[in-house]
Predict the structure.
Amino acid sequence: MRPVNRSEILAELKAMLAEFGDVDPEQVDEQTAFIADLGLDSLVLVRMTVVAEKRFGVRIPDEVAWELHTVGAVVGHVEQALSGRIGAGGE
Amino acid sequence: MSELVRFLREKMWVLGDTRWYARVDSVRGDLVEVERLGYAQLDARARAVGAWLADRTPPGARVLLMYPAGLEFFAVFLGCLYAGRVAVPAPLPATDRRALQRAEGIIRDAHVGLVLSDAAHQPALGSWLAGLDPAPRAECVATDGPGLPDPGDWSPAALDLSATAYVQYTSGSTSEPRGVVITHRNLLHNLLSIRETILPAEVLDEVRDDPSPTGAGWLPHYHDMGLVGMLLSPLASYGNLVLCSPVSFVAHPLLWLQMISRYRAFYTFAPNFGYDWLLRSLKNDRLTDLDPDLGLDSLRFALNGAEPVRADVLNAVARRLAPLGFRPDIWAPCYGLAEATLMVTGTACGSGPTLGRFDRDALEAGQAVPAPDGVDLVGCGRPVGADVRIVDPATSQPLKDRHIGEIWVSGDSVADGYLGDPQATAEHFAATTADGDGPFLRTGDLGFFQDGELFVTGRAKDLIIANGRNIHPQDIERVSESADPATGPSAAFTLPGSSGHEHIVLVQEVRPRHLDGRTPAALAGLIRGRLAQELRLAVHVVIVGPMSVPRTTSGKVQRSGTRDELLAARLSPLHSDLSDLPSDVRRP
């Protein structure tokens, strides 16, 4: 089932960070920045963006992805997209 | 018709659609072929584009090609060659946020009058062009709609081998793009040299008579290795090519192995970071659990070039993929650069890589002394139709075997120079050795020869390589120095980490009067954030007091000097992101 509320989205994102970025979920909160705090590289971010689109069933266009620097920003984008305010899409 | 165009078209005419190019993508974990063109179809498409360009642009016009990964780009690139128009490949903004800024620099630098793309990207590119200030006279047209003339309308242009084939934008920081002018002669010579070096005569005969040999790769077509090595080489050696976009590979690394497996590819190619990414992303999964049909036993060589070739990555990949039939002797390391079209040295199919261990202290002192417990270095093969010398960069004196110096190259693959930049061209393309030989291309890379094999030990000065991106330290410094009124001059460089991955470090001078009560740690955090946003780079920031960064007598920041000071603990930082990883950073 797709995650629907903020805490479920956050939990899924933490799981993805652990899976693709070897990040300890304990280290992560909404303020965490992917590059500046976690030191993730561009390859991990590209992969996570594509996987996130599929898992959450939302579109994350490149120009949007570039601006989502923190975990909270991604959670917010996914939440809005799922609630139809941005327009859900994808698969 | 230039000899190059005749050489390429001859293959298409003889082989027709028995050979092909195809692009695949990953759909729910499965490989799906999304497009395919036979040689003859590709040729027809290229002739149509060539006829259209001949009608629409003056001879020699520069045409910017901004396409997604795929066969349309290749057909249009060939069309430019057919018509005697100069293609300038560039990335789309989707792959790099600063691509548009770069493209604008190229349009102005190369006096581009026409931008070609596909129908999906033309509207956005068109409005971007219209919004530039001052507006260039360039317009953007999509080539994949209706309206191209009949391929039969194309008539061969009379072209000498000295005519420009394309401009390869390469090194040069973001603000100063640098285009290498590649002639028809350069490209023909490099394609033939690659073929002769990599494919021994008996292998080439085999490939010519067999319609099945296929290469597999995912490199970006706007880089020299993607354009010449990936797209053009199969045509030169009668082969097929299956490709996917770089983003598809990064997002679905398994797709690379699926391409090799499904199409029984006999070779593949990538820079070190690609093989490393495959390793990192496959983790501990059992490969046959991921896809039970995977098999790599068809591979006869795996090129590794464009970045320093690392022995630990070769070994780890070979071990990891061994259960699928990958053999360590298929590694074919190579060395090259866009200024020499592509390849300068290479390893023949079947001969296997040369690994050596050399004493670390001797290497630092400029000599390669074999030592059983030394540093692992990988040989990058033998010269590919080029005269390659090792020269003392200070005295221009040629050096003997096992002595480290700058790598100098001459031959028909070496480009004429940088577009519209006679000064940089003279600095890089017109070197003469102390005994009067020349002209040579100065590569800026360091290395030595041992038994005819080139070992590369260092890279172009100061250049930072991260995940296939060449990053100029001045781009990092510029972002940081403009991030806040409290940031003064800075120096960016790398430190090797124990895991083999390099740490990017920025030593930043602070202007204390502008801190306004903030701590140096807070300033470091702000800079890290800006670098992450602007350049997508994770950088360790070290804040130091005013005038702490070493400078030359003329006041220029010395990056290697700053690095030495930092390692010798002579900088007294006000804040250091490195304090939590001292054991990870080893002395170079």
